[in-house]
Amino acid sequence: MGYENEMKIEFDSRSCNEGFIRVAVSAFMTQLNPTLEEVADVKTAVSEAVTNCIVHAYDGKVEKITVSCHIEGNALCLSVKDTGCGIPDIEKAMEPLFTTRPEMERSGMGFAFMEAFMDEVHVESTPGHGTTVSMRKEIGWNKPLH
Predict the structure, then answer these.
(1) Which residues are tagged catalytic?
(2) Which CATH superfamily is domain 5-138 in?
């Protein structure tokens, strides 16, 4: 696709894989020489997106989640895709404190955290067919020039 570098990982929607994908994305982004804070921001956003797939998209069933990353200049671009139930009202779902799973003590802050820690967040979803969360993080843009 003309990106400087890219990767794609498909894995089971099991909570034990959340840590794996956080580390995989962190390792991939090291080529951009991120700060520890930038790595932590991305890891948090990835964790929230993957957790949404596990908890909401598949309702406990084990299916596949695909995480794709690519480098564009000094930016990490990533997407988290599921083929689950989809989101009927994306705007409502992205409101802070909104959750479809209050019985599981979900905070409803997943999308808010993604938006807080990433520079761009875009959600596409089709009910019955799944959701893709695309995120972008500029790495090093606030570092002082030497």
Answers:
(1) 48, 52, 106
(2) Histidine kinase-like ATPase, C-terminal domain (3.30.565.10)
